[in-house]
Amino acid sequence: MSTQTITAVGQTAETQTPVYREPLQLKGALDQYESFDVTPVIGREFKDVNLKDWLRTPNSDELIRDLAITISQRGVVFFRKQDDLDKELQKELAQRLGELSGKPETSKLHIHPVSNSGRRLGGEDDEISVISSEQAKEIYKKTFFNFSEKKQSAKEGWHSDITFEPVPSDYAILRLTQLPKTGGDTLWASGYDLYDRLSEPYQKFFESLSATYSQPGFAAAAKENGFELYSKPRGAPENVGSDLTAIHPVIRTNPVTGWKSIFAVGHHVKQINGLTEAESRRALDWFVQLIVENHDLQVRHRWQNANDLAIWDNRSVYHTATFDYLGLGERTGQRAVSLGERPYLDSNSNSRRESLGVQDA
Description:
Blueprint: E1 3-8, E2 11-15, E3 35-37, E4 44-46, H1 51-56, H2 60-74, E5 76-79, H3 87-100, E6 129-132, H4 133-139, E7 169-178, E8 186-190, H5 191-196, H6 200-207, E9 210-214, H7 216-225, E10 245-249, E11 251-253, E12 260-262, E13 269-272, H8 277-293, E14 298-301, E15 309-313, E16 317-321, E17 332-339, E18 345-346, H9 352-356
Helix pairs in contact: 2-3
Protein name: TauD/TfdA-like domain-containing protein
Pfam families: TauD (PF02668)
Organism: Clohesyomyces aquaticus
């Protein structure tokens, strides 16, 4: 196995020794539990499962390991009414998903530079980000969200979590605790399938490139609201300081599945290195355009109950919330984000369709 590692802006280098293991294989630990694929491409929902039981049963490691593989293969997995899963258990589950699927020992749970205990409505635990519509309206009113402006496009909402960190996320768990009367759905899209939509020459071209991932909006929000970004180590020793910028591949390999996906998608991506500003913007806009024009690589999840829960793999999917519930109540959730490995591209890895033998339509 050879891997591409980013050494400088616009450059790649081949490492000569294997760094990453072979893709993980399911062992059937979850076969006894009823589940269904929400779409052919992305999403699976388990029925009548209590995740607290999975965390405490004697074969817990086998269950959580197979759950991690399932999440990485399906992109996002859903569970309803996890009333017994408190914040500590949610954090434990997030960390064990990464550990049992092989993440580095130094990678723990992420501490968000903004959404932490230092904010009003931020809770008391830095390793749990409170996802709050009320808080968002306070902090991001002049940066990400202008709630008084007429909206004609929501495409800028698509992203993967914290890709501006040198060591970004593998798995994330969101549990909604307060729901509006209706609305507030979350959508996910498959980075595997997005990669498969490209022609082979385009695949090879983007595989040769790195991108700069950055989020200046957080610094702007901090300045506007009179607070400092969390600059101490944010769950990994590499994730430190207030300069929220990193260099990662445009195309990365998910180490759990061995499948390639487009990583450079969403509002944390600033520039594809080596391209002109205009070329980079066209490419990044095109990636998002492919998502919004191909609803068959998306899944839309309706949150039905308090403590409904979603777990996704940030290495291979993107997501966006739906801000359609103004006047229908607030939307609040608890998110735990596990940190994985530094993104890399294994030049010998395959696409999802190649690995599964799926023919192009």
